[in-house]
Write the structure tokens for this entry.
Amino acid sequence: MGKISNEELVQKLTDKFAGQVTQTGADYGLLTVETSKELIHDVLAYLKTDAALQFIYLTDITAIHYPEQEKQIGVIYHLHSLTTNTRIRIKVYLTLEDLHIPTATTLWDGANWMERETYDFFGVIFDGHPDLRRILNVDDMTVFPMRKEFPLEDPNRIDKKDYFFGR
Amino acid sequence: MQNHPVYTDNDPQTEYSTLNLGPTHPATHGVFQNVLQLDGERIVSGVSTIGYIHRAFEKIAEHRPFYQITPLTDRLNYCSSPINNMGWHMTVEKMLNIQMPKRVDYMRVIIMELARIADHIVCNGVLGVDTGAFTGFLYMMEYREEIYEIYEEICGSRLTTNIGRIGGFERNFNTIAFNKIRKFIQKFPPVLREFEALFNRNRIFIDRTRDVAAVTQEQALSYSWSGPILRATGVDYDVRAMEPYSSYEDFDFEVPVGENGDVYNRFLVRNEEMWQSLRIIEQALNKIEKEPSDIFHADVPAFYLPPKEEVYNNMEALIYHFKIVMGEVETPNAEVYHAVEGANGELGFYLVNDGGRSPYRLHFRRPSFINYQMYAPMSRGMLLSDAIINMSSLNVIAGELDA
């Protein structure tokens, strides 16, 4: 089977989820869609089980933090359909007050550690996860270090400020 | 005198014993801890603890210009760091839409395949050590050394190579490097053949590895396995063949697969991959001869560091040097996922760029991290000694596991 075109994928997702899955980009040919946390489990399950799509391979789960946005934390899934050699990226944005999202461990066993890592660094709570603990950081850490409010360097340092470089 | 209870086989076991396998157990080849519940020698359950050498690379990467992220990737899978370096360079080049000259692609392919061989030498050699055969490991180690000498000739360092640049290589391969590569592909095949003769039909080795930790295709895919251990189950997923990068589509090679995903099959797949890598290197050497011999980088002055002698004598070069090192070059707003076939599986770089001097977010899809999570569940019911060789055959590298 050949590669599924992005248009076809978008069409299928739009038909199935009545416009609740929207295309947000296709940088370098990789289709990116956005959906809501209510739908994410259904979208993942549909992509995995649909006979024509067969996105059976969960490549990665990670997150990103945009402090300026209203919905600050984005959870990002990368799926890969091995039979058609197509990749897709799915994003769900969450507010800091409500960082709950359904787990994908019911679909893929491999989602377990990926979600634990995402929880560890961004504090996203995957509802239904069998063992949501920190994984790389120490257990008694109280913050989620990949969020943008934690600077790596001394924030008082001024020698790297933009105005020194005419920016 | 105190009375110690003596258990016999007929006594009902009411308590399991707890064993801390690791964090620094000599048989685990790295800092991994597994707390195992044992019923005699059989594992009842296990919990993996990881993160002992977590160095927050993803956080550091958000504060470094693209250029300075290459040394971070060295320290992921340090047994085959050139693959990580090239994977990162190609991710940035993909983001910037830089087209590489064919010769650079082939040079990269040579280095990446050498790195794959070096990685598989260590993994399969160590698997031998864990089953009680030290000879193969020591014998093969000499050839890993030769590969490291090739790296040394090209980039000056051996383990954490920082090889190549965004946009190509820092310098051309010299004659000595080409001679060393040619010598290697001549000298290594007989050794590999001998190594296979030592193991492949060795009764003791087969008894120790066959049907140990067998994994079905469904399990492997559900756990998102990739690389040789996935192919050992019979799934022919190889990024080099599925989504060719760096002109892999120009090469004629096979993707070896196994049958039942046990330790023996993983060993055979890795061995066969070394043969395929040798084939690829040989083809690459022939292809390189047909390309103009003075090209070793793309013509992208805004991203490729100028040679040092020009930096000191030429103003444009100095400006570019400064801009590149300080991260002053404009980059697009973009989101890239680029995957390469690392020695352990799909090594992915997910890069979100906002046009600043460093990535807005960089995530490494590290195959060791994802492959290792099945270790504790699959160890259930296994003998402790089998669990040890299972770990060697997964080839989990602590640097890649913990990032």
Q: What stands out?
A: Residues 102-130 of chain B form the longest helix (29 residues). The two ends of chain B are 52 Å apart (CA to CA). Chain B has a mean pLDDT of 90. The beta strands of chain B are 17-21, 33-39, 42-49, 333-341, 346-354, 361-365.
